[in-house]
């Protein structure tokens, strides 16, 4: 609901309020974001002004500590601004004052050319506030959407050149929140290839500015576009926490700044590094959408809220709200070394244990027997696959499995027919040899002709063969950017490609991938409801990776495969049971040479698939509770409870075995205290209150990496 009261705009979600007021001078002041407030007039009164250290005396304007909605550069506030435009006078000083507003019922704000949340069957309202800097001829439209049943505020902004001359936008964040409470921590998710999204928590101290950004082209392994600020005492279950998630797949920045008085500013949006967008008179620039969330139930509260929002209102794919097929992918099973016979054998064996989808990974096209060549040439390698993709798909279908295919459409190898024909299609700068990475170059998606090529190349294969799943890979960072703002132009091209292909092939399940989880972001999730989480498939490493990925992103987006032991990335040996039980908390599959597994192992795999089939709906749609953190203990545990609290799935791992040591009881969460729950395996019955207050004794085996799972059903 959006309430306008005098000079106050009050957005109310399920349990939250977001209050904005316009002060006497016309500055747009942030008043409250947090727990729901009553409907009253929050117009700024004098004592509040003093408290906020804001002065309106013409000779003494002082915005430096004022909480503002979209702070400008240089006009008495010297903290990081939400936007910067180089104006006709050659400087970037600006001041935005309130001009106008409109409230749109039944509406979720859209952002031109970029993915954003949609309304679906929810009730939502949007407020647009137009601010204006008359001196330089600039309008900025701030957009806020609130859903009645969620605790999120969507923010984006539009910068409009109202002057007669060209104007350069040098930075344009999507959202800014100025908190006037002290003592916050910042949580963010840095990482690298094979160790994505490490849960990292630091204190925000006086005078500190922490820049959580990435400028590697894609949203990146190195830093995820999701951050949280929280009270110092906040933990998994309690405390006030604010989440900031950007729906964007390119260079991003989230900045947390604590001023000399302890005021904390968080801004999130496009990374201003190497960014510039020139606006002719009358033109406008739109920022991506940021999703701001609040919970007073700790990080777990933020997660459950974000999971609902991203599961229901982000991805438009027909697969978003369907159970996904259990797949087998041949990558770690064969790498480039396969032929048709081998693949069909794998599919046959996989079918016998209950797998539903066979995915052919890298190496099926051009003359690609290693990663040196052929990206860009999306034509089947007939030496390996004499029946072509169409024929192979038919053979796999005849075995009773659906067929899926890997592409890396944004890339080109210099050794490819495409590059020989169109060397100018690779991203490059004049007079410099473009820099290779994994022997490949990136295609210039800022060029419409290149985007059309990709749409046609991928599209013609999807038209020709019965391919119902696509793994869309992206395996290098972006260098050699020819001009400032290039990265954003590229990302707009990428979104056009995704938009076209996903609309044209609505039956196809797309899975995002970028050397594992290098582009695990809400922008990619808008087109593909699942993403390959990490190239590190070791079950023990996956504890941390999946734990921290789940803080923002739902389990329905986290692709998790059982791979061979010893693990290919680490050499670690883990039981097949552990590998499967870790992977249950996501979109489950296998990625190994199943033809090399013993009958005994295949029997175990069959049982694993039977078990996952029992919980997959629950995992995809339920509420997640993280119970034990691998970041600060020798354990990792999580639990998923169905929305009606009739079912709960519990997982726990003791990472290293310990002698003469009593493992603590595990207290479940989120159950109905008044209900009785039966352990689906043993039939033992427990009260919901008993499971949550007394907990259960864990049943680890005497070995490292011991896991167990339990399924409870309400009686
Ligand atoms: C990187 C991906 O993350 C892997 O799963 C695999 O598809 C390889 N690329 C193939 O080159």
Give an account of the 3D structure.
With 715 residues, the protein is α+β, with helices and mostly antiparallel strands. The chain folds into 3 domains: 312 residues, alpha-galactosidase from lactobacil brevis (Beta-galactosidase, Chain A, domain 5, Distorted Sandwich); 296 residues, TIM Barrel (Alpha-Beta Barrel); 87 residues, Immunoglobulin-like, CATH 2.60.40.1180. It is built from 13 helices and 36 strands. Strands 6, 7, 8, 9, 11, 12, 14, 15, 19 and 20 form a 10-stranded antiparallel sheet that branches. Strands 21-22-23-26-27-28-29-30 form an 8-stranded parallel β-barrel, surrounded by 5 helices. Strands 5, 10, 13, 16, 17 and 18 form a 6-stranded antiparallel sheet that branches. α11 links the parallel β29 and β30. The structure holds (2R,3S,4R,5S)-2-(hydroxymethyl)piperidine-3,4,5-triol (DGJ). (2R,3S,4R,5S)-2-(hydroxymethyl)piperidine-3,4,5-triol binds next to loops.
Features:
715 residues; 13 helices; alpha+beta; TIM Barrel; binds (2R,3S,4R,5S)-2-(hydroxymethyl)piperidine-3,4,5-triol; Beta-galactosidase, Chain A, domain 5; 8-stranded parallel β-barrel; 10-stranded antiparallel sheet; Immunoglobulin-like; 3 domains
What is the count of distinct domains?
3
Round the mean pLDDT to the nearest integer and report it: 96
CATH topology of the largest domain: Beta-galactosidase, Chain A, domain 5
Let me know the CATH homologous superfamily of the largest domain: alpha-galactosidase from lactobacil brevis
- Please summarize the sheet with the most strands: 10 strands, antiparallel
- Give the tally of β-strands: 36
Query: Which small-molecule ligands are present, each listed once?
Result: (2R,3S,4R,5S)-2-(hydroxymethyl)piperidine-3,4,5-triol
CATH architecture of the largest domain: Distorted Sandwich
Percent range for β-strand residues? 25-35%
If helices are DSSP runs of H or I spanning 4 or more residues, what is the number of helices?
13
């Amino acid at each position: 609901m959006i309430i306008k009261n005098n000079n106050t705009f009050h957005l109310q979600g399920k349990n939250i309020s977001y209050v904005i007021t316009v002060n006497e001078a016309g500055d747009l002041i942030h008043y409250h974001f947090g727990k729901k407030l009553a409907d009253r007039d929050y117009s700024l009164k004098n004592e509040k002004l003093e408290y906020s250290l804001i002065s309106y005396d013409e000779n003494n304007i002082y915005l430096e500590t004022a909480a503002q909605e979209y702070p400008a550069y240089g006009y008495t506030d010297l903290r990081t601004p939400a936007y910067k435009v180089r104006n006709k006078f050659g400087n970037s000083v600006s001041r935005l004052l309130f001009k106008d507003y409109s409230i749109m019922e039944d509406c979720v704000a859209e952002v031109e050319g970029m993915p954003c949340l949609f309304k679906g069957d929810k009730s939502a309202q949007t407020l647009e506030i137009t601010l204006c800097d008359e001196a330089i001829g600039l309008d900025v439209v701030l957009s806020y959407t609130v859903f009645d049943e969620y605790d999120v505020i969507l923010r984006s902004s539009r910068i409009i050149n109202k002057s007669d001359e060209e104007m350069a936008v040098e930075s344009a964040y999507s959202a800014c929140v100025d908190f006037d409470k002290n003592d916050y921590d910042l949580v963010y998710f840095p990482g690298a290839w094979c160790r994505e999204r490490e849960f990292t928590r630091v204190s925000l101290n006086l005078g500190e500015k922490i820049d959580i950004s990435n400028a590697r082209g894609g949203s990146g392994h190195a830093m995820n576009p999701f951050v949280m600020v929280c009270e110092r005492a906040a933990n998994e279950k309690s405390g006030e926490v604010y989440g900031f998630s950007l729906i964007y797949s390119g260079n991003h920045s989230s900045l947390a700044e604590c001023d000399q008085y302890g005021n904390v500013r968080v801004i999130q949006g496009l990374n201003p590094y190497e960014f510039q967008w020139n606006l002719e008179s009358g033109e406008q620039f739109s920022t991506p959408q940021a999703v701001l969330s609040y919970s007073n139930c700790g990080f777990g509260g933020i997660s459950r809220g974000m999971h609902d929002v991203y599961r229901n209102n982000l991805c438009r794919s027909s697969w978003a709200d369907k159970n996904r097929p259990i797949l087998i992918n041949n990558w770690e099973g064969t790498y480039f070394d396969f032929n048709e016979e081998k693949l069909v054998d794998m599919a046959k064996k996989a079918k016998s244990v209950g797998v539903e989808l066979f995915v052919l990974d890298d190496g099926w096209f051009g003359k690609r027997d290693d990663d040196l060549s052929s990206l860009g040439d999306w034509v089947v390698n007939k030496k390996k696959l004499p029946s072509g993709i169409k024929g192979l798909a038919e053979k796999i279908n005849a075995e009773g499995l659906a067929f899926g295919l890997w592409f890396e459409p944004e890339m080109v190898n210099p050794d490819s027919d495409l590059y020989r024909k169109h060397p100018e299609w690779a991203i490059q700068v004049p007079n410099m040899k473009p820099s290779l990475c994994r022997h490949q170059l990136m295609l210039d998606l800022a060029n419409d002709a290149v985007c059309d090529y990709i749409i046609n190349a991928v599209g013609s294969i999807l038209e020709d063969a019965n391919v119902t799943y696509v793994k869309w890979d992206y395996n290098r960072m972006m260098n050699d950017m020819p001009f400032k703002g290039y990265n954003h132009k590229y990302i707009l091209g990428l979104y056009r490609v995704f938009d076209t292909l996903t609309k044209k092939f609505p039956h196809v399940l797309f899975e995002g991938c970028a050397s594992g989880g290098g582009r695990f972001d809400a922008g990619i999730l808008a087109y593909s409801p699942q993403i390959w989480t990490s190239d590190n498939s070791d079950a023990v490493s996956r504890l941390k990776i999946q734990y921290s990925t789940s803080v923002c992103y739902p389990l329905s987006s986290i692709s998790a495969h059982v791979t061979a032991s010893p693990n290919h990335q680490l050499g670690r040996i883990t039981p097949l049971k552990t590998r499967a039980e870790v992977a249950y908390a996501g979109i489950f599959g296998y990625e190994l040479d199943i033809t090399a597994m013993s009958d005994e192992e295949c029997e175990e795999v069959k049982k694993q698939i039977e078990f996952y089939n029992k919980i997959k709906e629950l995992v995809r749609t339920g509420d997640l509770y993280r119970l034990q953190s691998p970041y600060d203990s020798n354990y990792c545990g999580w639990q998923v409870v169905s929305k009606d609290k009739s079912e709960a799935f519990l997982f726990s791992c003791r990472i290293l075995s310990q002698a003469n040591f009593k493992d603590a009881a595990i207290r479940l969460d989120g159950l109905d205290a008044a209900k009785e729950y039966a352990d689906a395996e043993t039939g033992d019955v427990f009260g919901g209150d008993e499971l949550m207050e007394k907990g259960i004794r864990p049943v680890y085996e005497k070995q490292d990496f011991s896991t167990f799972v339990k399924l409870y059903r309400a009686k």
